[in-house]
What we know:
Layout: H1 12-23, H2 29-46, E1 50-52, H3 54-59, H4 61-68, H5 76-85, H6 88-97, H7 101-137, H8 152-172, H9 176-196, H10 199-215, H11 223-236, H12 243-260, H13 276-292, H14 304-314, H15 318-323, H16 330-360, H17 365-375, H18 388-399, E2 406-408
Antiparallel strand pairs: 1-2
Helix pairs in contact: 1-2, 1-7, 2-6, 4-16, 6-18, 7-9, 8-9, 8-10, 8-17, 9-11, 10-11, 10-17, 13-14, 13-16, 16-17
Amino acid sequence: MNASIIPKKISFDNLSLVSLLFISYLDFAPFFYIFLVIQIIVFLIKKNNLKFSLHFFIISFPFIIALFGLINTSNFNQAFEDIGRLLPFIIFPFYLLLKSKEQWIEQKLIMFIFFIIGLIIHFLIDIISSCNLFLVTKNINSFFYTNFDKDTNILSVIVACSSLILAEFCIQEKNKHRFIFYFISMLLLIIFLMFLQSKVAQISLFLGLFLLIIFNRSNKKIAYVLFPISLMIIIFFMPGFNSRFQTAINNSQVIKLNKIQKKVPKDLSVEDYDFSENMRKIAIEGSISVIKNNILIGVGTGDWRDELTEWYKLNNHIKSYKDRTAPHNQYIRIALKHGIVGLLYMGVFIFYGIKQARKTKNPGMFSILFILIITSLGYDILDVGTGAPSIAFLLSLFFINPNNLIKIK
């Protein structure tokens, strides 16, 4: 990482990707996907004898397994909608890996820096929006959870992943200016994460930072990792921080009381009106029941939500039925869609990531893999529209390079 924070010369090629990363949260991403696809097509027309290695198909597994799920789906409208959301897992590897080795070395760090700047801009916009809401409501909860940002869960995963990567960079960075940028960015994103109040993402980041300390205990800069850990602990005990979880408890108690007083229909369970923990338990129970009947190849890319919703209806989980609640677990979601075959493919993906991380020891690899493995236990992340672009970008940027994925003769 010898490049400066701001490149001396920014080409049009750089700007095409940088622009996408800056505005990916402002609903303009589809236009830039089209632009990237056009660039890829033009490049492919000029070349011949394009050869793909096994690595390419491993990295692009969310998109490829979704195509596989077409063989046993009946709801093709939903299937193609899901496949469309997964296009970044093909577009980013193509776009990045068709670059020359020299372009890759020159642009890799620059692209990540602009990605981080984009997240910080998103953070600042949310702060301004929450301040405006607070002026109206006078409620401190304006700065937390869905009041702070509507895409709470997936954004938390992206922020946690980026924060841990920045922590890795801080430990290894020798350039003073880049170190300052990484450290300040890391602190801002951690504050961002704490405001989002995503427990799974917070725990995964906390554990990741702790593991960084263990793995780099002989490094003098490890003290800088202790600071964000302390910051997370301080914010956790801030007034209002746990309000979301306390509200869930209070509402559950009120619902139980209302049920006793016959203010809630008898055929509806308390769980149907409870918050995320019980809703997730119901979703997982339903998913496992559907998986048992379709264990080998699942129910297909387009039918998974229909099948799960039908189970909610049959088992009288009215709120889950109305909300068409997803499993909130990436492993179960893959098994629901694609059965054992999908889980095996995901296992190969994880094994490959671990192997690459151990082999290269490049900053970023450990962080991405660790956060994805942990947060997949509590969220649907790989095949969710708002998260797919950022996760596909980070995976492509840190886990692959032009030498081992696409060969052009």
